[in-house]
Amino acid sequence: MIFKLDMENYIMGRVITGIKGFDKLVDGGFPLGSIVLLSGQPGTGKTIFGLNYLFNGAKKFNERGVFITLEEDRNSLLEQAKQFGWDLAKLERDGLLQLITIRTFELKKGYMEQLFSKVEKFGAKRLVIDSLSSLSIKIPTAYMKLNEVNDFAIRRFIYEFTDKLKDINGITTLLTQQSSENLVDKSDLAEFMCDGVIKISFEPMGGKYSRSLIVKKMRRTRNEEDIHPLEISKDGIVIHDIK
Ligand SMILES: Nc1ncnc2c1ncn2[C@@H]1O[C@H](COP(=O)(O)OP(=O)(O)OP(=O)(O)O)[C@@H](O)[C@H]1O
Ligand SMILES: [Mg+2]
């Protein structure tokens, strides 16, 4: 059932993530067709956030989604999702989801272009790439030009990659990124190229580690600037109001 408010958001060109407590931080959802970078250290909940975004899209809005992973195998993702009651294998059978695992040896020249055309043909409205960090570590050798310095190749790759993503019609993308490896990620460039930047932290607070989320940037949006507690609950990600 799509609520009236949700319909209004669609009309306004918003893609509702459906992640509890999140959409109101970004004026109703991700701007339609945008690329959003989700950055955080290991174990902060980036992969779960991405799965949650696609599961909600399929389940609540009947929208197709593609999850591209360079980090985990299929079973590990299916098992992780199951813990929150998300049956991804069923969504795949129903034609609402595709899980794609990329192996390093597949990253030959032209592979990304083929992948994007596959995503487009599937009619995906939501795309998650987990992660840009792994992609930029693994891909440049295949895409590198003769005599190009590695550092420059990664920058050029991120630039061309995000640019090509913008050409896929009507798709709203979440790109995850390891924030602890800024040197490899060229995170300043990625943050500049993406329409939105969300950061998740996992830091000591009052004697224990707590997760929190901030929306650092969201083009075309009046975004909130507060730091919000993030919980990984039994139903998935929950963003809490500040007390
Ligand atoms: N069922 C669950 N309930 C509560 N917390 C969970 C559950 N399953 C996993 N977690 C927490 O989520 C973390 C993993 O989340 P996730 O895989 O999304 O992190 P990540 O940011 O993608 O990490 P990485 O950068 O290593 O890929 C675990 O370390 C654990 O703390
Ligand atoms: Mg992950």
Structure description:
The chain is 37% helix and 26% strand. The mean pLDDT is 90. It has a single domain (29-239), classed as Rossmann fold (3-Layer(aba) Sandwich), CATH 3.40.50. The radius of gyration is 17 Å and the shape is globular. The strands form two sheets. It has a nine-stranded mixed β-sheet, with helices on both faces. The protein has helices spanning 4-11, 46-61, 74-82, 88-93, 111-122, 132-138, 140-143, 150-165, 182-185, 187-193; strands spanning 14-15, 30-31, 35-40, 65-69, 97-101, 126-130, 172-178, 196-205, 208-218, 228-233, 236-239. The protein is of the alpha/beta class. The protein has ten helices and eleven strands. Bound molecules: adenosine-5'-triphosphate and magnesium ion. Adenosine-5'-triphosphate binds at residues 40, 42-48, 71, 83, 178, 232.
Instruction: Give the strand line-up of the largest sheet.
Output: 5-4-6-7-3-8-9-10-11
> What is the tally of beta strands?
11
Kindly estimate the percentage of residues that lie in beta strands according to DSSP: 25-35%
Q: Could you say what the CATH architecture is?
A: 3-Layer(aba) Sandwich
CATH class: Alpha Beta
Radius of gyration: 17 Å
What is the CATH H-level superfamily? P-loop containing nucleotide triphosphate hydrolases
- Range of helix content: 25-40%
What is the N-to-C succession of helices and strands? HEEEHEHHEHEHHHEHHEEEE
- Counted up, domains total 1
Q: What is the molecular shape?
A: globular
